[in-house]
Specification:
By secondary structure, the protein is α/β, with parallel strands linked by helices. The chain is built from 14 helices and twelve strands. It starts with a helix and ends in a 5-residue tail after the last strand. Bound molecules: flavin mononucleotide. Flavin mononucleotide binds next to helix 1 and helix 13.
Length: 344
């Protein structure tokens, strides 16, 4: 195994077996409640989540977040995640394809996703550090082609690069290279964080650069500073464990930009329950995404466990939509949620 494969394996092990959640900072979802509609006329059986994402039909606006690739273990995990995605007709992301840039030993661990999920949107993934390092977009187009990706996700993770021993926090030229990618790739580009969130100011600059979507990956879920601190085996009582903008704040704030820009918002970072997912939609997310909770469920209860988990989340969401008088997610995004301090 090369250095990147070993790191990927350590990430998986830590995310499955250790507590790598934020310590005291939360997503902020717990600060909201739903606005009950005592005269709801919604027909719960008529609520339908089917729609289109990246020109493909999907049954739920739920994305299995980019997680893994580049190790034997990840090939098995990706196979299962792809089976879930195809069964539920939901989009799925691959983990960082950096390995595939470096050598072709692990190409199969990425390709396996498309093989098992031929009919759904599949998202490629690469880190900001690589986007800065390689000037030519051709290399990234190859990554798109490798998995017949429907979009390319660039993860921006300055905190993780800073804390990781072998990390590369040099992002100089990133925005320029992102606009180059937008122009040169034959698929849309989505920008995601990995748990520190994306602000309105950053979103604006990215939208001006032409990106298709923003996955906020805000604070309150998995702490990637936490994962790296545990890997480094240093004092984990570290201020940076809890660094970042809470997921609820990011979704609510950047959704205001919809008045001026056309783009897709993916709400993620600590989407661990049906209620988290519902609040993310109510605050403005077009899709929600989840990583560690899905991984842990897969580890514990396999493919069927993950399918049940996601099905159950959307069953709960229907109940919440019924109780808030929302026939559609579009209606659900309009004033159906309230900050708790206003209730008392
Ligand atoms: C095991 C694991 C590996 C991950 N690897 C990647 C990756 O390669 N690329 C990426 O963009 N995000 C990666 N992430 C970050 C997630 O996509 C997500 O943004 C982050 O964990 C926050 O979501 P969560 O709170 O639902 O876990 C990974 C997450 C996990 C749990």
């Amino acid at each position: 195994m090369n250095e990147t494969s070993i790191r990927k394996k350590e990430h998986l092990d830590l995310c499955i077996n250790e507590d790598v959640a934020f310590k005291s900072k939360t997503t902020g979802f717990e600060r909201y409640d739903f606005l009950h509609d005592a005269i709801t006329e919604v027909k719960i059986d008529k609520i339908n989540f089917a729609g289109k994402f990246l020109k493909k039909k999907i049954d739920y606006p739920f994305l299995i977040s980019c997680m893994t690739g580049g190790t034997n273990e990840s090939e098995k995990i990706n196979t299962k995640l792809a089976v879930v995605a195809e069964k539920l007709k939901i989009p799925v992301g691959v983990g960082s394809q950096r390995q595939a840039l470096e050598d072709n030993n692990f190409e199969e661990s990425y390709k396996i996703i498309r093989k098992n999920a031929p009919g759904v949107p599949v998202l490629g993934n690469i880190g900001a550090a690589e986007v800065v390092k390689y000037k030519s977009s051709q290399k990234f187009q190859k990554l798109v082609d490798l998995i017949e990706a429907d979009a390319m996700v660039v993860h921006v993770n300055p905190l993780q690069e800073l804390i990781q021993h072998e990390g590369n926090p040099n992002f100089r030229g990133l925005l320029k290279n992102i606009s180059k990618l937008v122009k040169n790739l034959n698929v849309p580009v989505i920008i995601k964080e990995v748990g520190s969130g994306i602000s309105v100011r950053v979103t604006k600059r990215l939208l001006e650069a032409g990106v298709f979507g923003i996955d906020v990956a805000g604070a309150g879920g998995t702490s990637w500073a936490g994962v790296e601190l545990l890997r480094n085996d240093v004092n984990t009582e570290n201020y940076f464990w809890d660094w970042g903008l809470p997921t609820s704040f990011c979704i609510k704030e950047i959704s205001k930009l919809k008045n001026n820009y056309k783009f897709t918002i993916i709400g993620s970072g600590g989407i661990n329950t049906s209620i988290d997912a519902a609040k993310a939609f109510a605050l403005g997310a077009d899709l929600v995404a989840s990583a560690r909770t899905v991984l842990k469920e897969l580890d514990k209860n396999g493919v069927d466990g993950v399918i049940d988990l996601i099905d159950n989340w959307f069953t709960d969401l229907k109940k919440i939509m019924y109780l808030t008088g929302s026939n559609s997610l579009k209606q659900f995004k309009k004033n159906k949620i309230i900050r708790k301090e206003l209730l008392y």
